[in-house]
Amino acid sequence: MTAAQLRIQPRRALRAIRNLMQDPERTDQVFEIIDALAGDASQRGLARLRTTTIGPRLLAEKRRIIESLRDRNVLRSLPDGSLGRAYLAYMERENLSADGLVEASDAARRHVDIDADQHFYNMQLRDMHDVWHIVSGYGRDSFGELCLLAFTYAQTRNRGIGTIVLFGLRNASRAIGLRAAWNGVSEGYRRGRTAAWLPAQDWLALLALPLDAVRQALNVTPAQHYSPAAITVANDTTGALAA
């Protein structure tokens, strides 16, 4: 990847933010913002992954989690109470597809990862979004998406995600007040900071384990300042990720 591709692109990000504010269902514009402001976040993430105990094996095998997430028969065969079964129930209840974010991100990407390891890391992060919903306990309502993005920013330090969180926090504050919005978002960030680093986990193995055991192993503590019925933020810049 060239230096030009790693450069922060504020004009591109602002254009995408305007588009998203006009139409919150434009999931591709969420990825446009993330891509425009990411800088070297994914490169730093890959470098960190290579230093972990499991990272070299994950990169050598390159077993994409999305292949398992697409196979609903395999997910249905997992034990009751497992992460995989909870994920399947979530996707069926919300009428979602594992490929939904794939299509949106492909529409926004302006370059192809030349390095195979970098491509694997980037795609895994994208494909784990809905799994992180389950592990974190955040729903796909607007406030849940916002809190999960704060959690994700703590894990990835991607400036694009951080920017979306700031815009979402502004809108959430108008809907439920600054204190309630700040409590939920800041808690999401703290939970992301204290949790294990999720990109360096064997998610294919974790899918078969009890959800409570996965949360305990990853130190994902319960959220105290989030309720799925709390709000639905109109015209929220996070709403498109729920599509």
Please, could you describe this protein's structure?
- This protein is globular.
- It is built from 16 helices and no strands.
- About 65% of the residues lie in helices and about 0% in strands.
- With about 240 residues, the chain is mostly helical.
- The chain has one domain.
List the helices and strands and how they pair.
Elements: H1 3-6, H2 10-22, H3 27-37, H4 41-51, H5 55-61, H6 65-70, H7 72-76, H8 83-93, H9 100-108, H10 116-127, H11 129-136, H12 142-156, H13 159-176, H14 178-194, H15 203-206, H16 211-217
Helix pairs in contact: 2-3, 3-9, 3-13, 4-10, 8-11, 12-13, 12-14, 13-14
Features:
single chain; 243 residues; mainly alpha; 16 helices; disordered C terminus
Sum this structure up briefly.
It contains 16 helices and no strands. With 243 residues, the protein is an all-alpha fold.
Taking all Cα atoms into account, the compactness measure Rg is: 17 Å
Strand content: under 5%
- One letter per element, helices H and strands E, the order comes to HHHHHHHHHHHHHHHH
User: What best-fitting shape do the alpha-carbon axes yield?
Assistant: globular
Average pLDDT figure: 86
**The number of domains:** 1
Number of helices: 16
Low-confidence stretches: 232-237, 239-243
For the termini, the CA-CA separation is 30 Å
